[in-house]
Specification:
This is DUF2161 family putative PD-(D/E)XK-type phosphodiesterase. With 241 residues, this protein is an alpha/beta fold. The chain is built from ten helices and eight strands. A hairpin with a 2-residue loop joins strand 2 and strand 3.
């Protein structure tokens, strides 16, 4: 069967066969539910679609008013099941506490796989597993002096805490001349100062002798784009006598 010719009803038979083998009674189109499977007191509802979309998720979450055991079923997608995109999709489905069934079609046979069951989503566990990402997010926010980015503008130049730190160092070098990492740190540029100067990610710094840096020609030109930040950091610094 060619995948381009599939209809939703083509998903019914393989899923019906799967659940019959598992000891369920299976019924199609019951009170707006695509498939209903019953075994004892266990009620399973399965919603079918040829592709995973918002309508399918809405439909499935409505069925959760009837039972905790709700699956969505789709043909095996063309994207890799190991891709980040697919992992993100599966996270959303799990977050909605739905199960996922994939039906694979080939010339001679079909195969039904339950990728995961509908289970309660443990939000606390999820947050615990992402404690490091949370800490990094807060650290990034705390490292910024203000909000210089527009939300959603992923294709434009983004101001980060690291870049702000580079601008701070560049501002001091421009206004106070050659400085050492030690002096810059005393002025408040932070513990990353030596690393920033050594890596020189933006090409803004030149080392004129051991342990002494100046602003490069490239740096002189490019930091002109950040007058607000330059003024902010220059206003904070107090040069030691």
């Amino acid at each position: 069967m060619g995948e381009g010719k599939l209809k939703e009803i083509d998903l019914y038979k393989p899923i019906q066969t799967y659940f019959l083998k598992e000891g369920y009674e299976v019924y199609g189109e019951v009170n707006d539910c695509d498939i209903v499977a019953i075994k004892g007191d266990e009620l399973v509802v399965i919603e079918l679609k040829l592709s995973l979309n918002a309508d399918l998720l809405i439909q499935a979450t409505k069925r959760q008013k009837l039972t905790k055991l709700v699956y969505i079923a789709i043909p095996k997608p063309k994207i890799s099941l190991r891709s980040k995109r697919w992992n993100d999709i599966c996270h959303l489905i799990r977050r909605l506490e739905l199960g996922l069934i994939i039906v694979s079609f080939s010339v001679n046979r079909t195969k039904t796989d339950i990728l995961f069951e509908p289970t309660p989503f443990d939000r606390n566990k999820s947050m615990q597993l992402n404690k490091r990402k949370r800490a990094m997010l807060i650290k990034e926010v705390n490292g910024r002096s203000s909000d210089y980015n527009v939300g959603g503008s992923s294709r434009t130049k983004i101001m980060t805490a690291y870049k702000e730190n580079c601008i701070q160092i560049a501002s001091y070098l421009k206004n106070f001349g050659p400085l050492s990492p030690k002096t810059l740190k005393e002025m408040g540029t932070g513990d990353k100062t030596p690393s920033i100067l050594t890596k020189n990610y933006y090409g803004w710094f030149d080392r004129i002798k051991r342990g002494v840096y100046v602003l490069s020609d490239k740096g002189i030109q490019e930091i002109k784009e950040f007058p607000e930040l330059m003024n902010y950091y220059l206003g904070r610094v107090e040069m030691n006598d």
